[in-house]
UniProtKB/TrEMBL annotation:
Domain Glycosyl transferase family: 143-291
Family annotation (InterPro entries): Glyco_trans_1
GO molecular function: glycosyltransferase activity
Keyword Metal-binding: no
Keyword Metal-binding part of the UniProt annotation: no
Superkingdom in the source lineage: Bacteria
Protein known as: Glycosyl transferase family 1 domain-containing protein
Alphabetic keyword roster: Transferase
Length: 349
């Protein structure tokens, strides 16, 4: 197994990108020469230049290719506006690609030129074992909290809906806001967004920004929250792992039907579905949640417990590995050799 990291860098890292590409081609060349490659596993790039790089690797490879689409944006970024390139991809795929791993069934729409459904295998994202919250902890946080903590945890891209969340929170009555806390964590996309949030924080109570969180601080935020909110309309949305992490930590989820989310989220079983870009929809949902919680907190608790059980059943690392290696075993030739793995960056948040 030969891992090669294709994590995206900035413009100053252009030379490093070229170096990594040359490194990949050298590995493919050497592996072909030595006859050691049985499968080429390649995480799909969702940019124009990245797609050209993927095509080069597939053309050079003389072994079955398994593609893994981690997001949901390659149709929008590449195929939709580059019809000739899409047709070329189709020819290469049909000749070289054995299977395409997608996060969920609805993301097949990224490949409209592939009619054979047996090309696709759905393997969802997974949640790290250390994030799963015990049942007693979930029950305790709902029974002992005076305020409901609402958490937005994602990159602070405008299309992820964080501005609509803040505006909806500020539009609530003072009485309703007294029952809530809004917690936001993630990286800003630009200085303007950061300045906007800074101005909000100076003028408003009940809103807390935690910056970029990871490891223990991320786990504490998720496990300490009651409601996870992601009203995304991000055009490249795949299957946000943050929603699965919210399930595992006993959160009720508020989200939209963007991308592959409907494959892992159903209202009212997992929480509340809101209209995209709608401040009013988020406001009404928060009002409904506060009213329900003030009358009887067991309804939210039951959803949170079901979400935790759902995550434990469907989104563990063990299940992901089992599904992944079962697929590889099905494709692997009878004679065992070495496998070359081409790795490109982290999972989608």
């Amino acid at each position: 197994m030969v891992p090669i990291d294709f994590t995206k860098g900035n413009f100053e890292q252009g030379k490093a990108r070229v170096k990594r590409l040359l490194q990949v081609l050298e590995v493919v060349r050497d592996s072909i020469r030595l006859g050691t490659v049985d499968i080429v596993y390649l995480t799909v790039s969702q940019s124009l230049l990245g797609n050209l790089k993927d095509l080069l690797i597939m053309i050079f490879a003389r072994a079955p290719v398994v593609l893994h689409l981690h997001g949901g944006g390659i149709y929008e970024t590449v195929f939709r506006s580059h019809k000739i390139l899409a047709e070329f991809n189709k020819r290469v795929y049909l000749k070289k690609v054995k299977k395409i791993i997608i996060l969920s069934d609805s993301l097949q729409s990224n490949y409209p030129f592939i009619e054979r459904k047996d090309y696709f295998v759905s393997i969802p994202n997974f949640v790290s074992e250390d994030l799963f919250m015990p049942l007693q902890g979930i029950e305790r946080k709902f029974h002992t909290s005076e305020k409901l903590k609402v958490l937005f945890l994602s990159n602070l891209l405008e299309e992820k809906g964080y501005r609509e969340i803040v505006k909806a929170f500020l539009s609530l009555s003072e009485h309703t806001r007294e029952s809530l806390e809004l917690h936001i964590a993630g990286a800003f996309e630009n200085e303007g967004s950061e300045e906007w949030m800074s101005d909000i924080l100076q003028k408003s109570c009940g809103i807390f920004y935690h910056g970029i969180v990871a490891s223990e601080s991320k786990r504490e935020l998720l496990q300490g929250s009651h409601i996870f909110i992601l009203p995304t309309y991000y055009r490249y949305e795949g299957q946000p792992v943050s929603i699965l992490e919210a399930y595992a930590t006993g959160n009720v989820v508020i989200t939209t039907d963007q991308g592959g989310i409907p494959d892992v989220f159903c209202a009212p079983e997992n929480g509340y579905l809101v209209v995209k870009k709608s401040i009013q929809a988020i406001q009404r949902t928060l009002e409904e949640i506060v009213k329900s919680f003030s009358i009887d907190n067991t309804m939210l608790l039951q959803i949170a417990i079901k979400n935790s059980e759902y995550a434990r059943r469907e989104f563990t690392e063990e299940k992901f590995s089992e599904n992944f290696f079962t697929l590889i075993d099905e494709i692997m030739p009878v004679d065992d050799h070495n496998e070359v793995v081409l790795k490109q960056g982290p999972r989608e948040n």
